[in-house]
Design goal:
Elements lengths: L7 E2 L8 E3 L2 E3 L6 E3 L5 E4 L2 E3 L4 E5 L8 E4 L2 E3 L4 E3 L6
Length: 87
């Protein structure tokens, strides 16, 4: 999955999903965006060249939102961490 139009976003409140072995690049808001949900696993992906952010989350929740394992994140502009991942 890789497109200039969107990001690697799951359906709102999706839980216990494994997203692996994808290439996502040249997205506007973020190459990965967590929209609620719990215990998702993001593993073995290449996330590259997000325009505004590379990784972001809609809302910090009390439970574990996602695990992030063995991914490659490459960017030359924008922020590494966007909304709700920066304190």
């Amino acid at each position: 999955m890789g497109t200039a139009a969107g990001d690697f976003t799951r359906t709102k409140a999706a839980s216990e999903i494994v997203m692996e072995n994808n290439v996502v690049y040249r997205c506007k808001s973020a190459t990965f965006h967590q929209h609620y949900g719990r215990d998702n696993i993001i593993r073995n992906n290449i996330l590259a060249l997000g325009k505004e952010n590379q990784l972001m989350r809609t809302l910090e929740e009390e439970h574990n939102s996602f695990g992030f394992e063995r991914n490659i994140v490459y960017f030359d502009s924008g922020n590494l961490l966007g909304q709700q991942l920066v304190e």
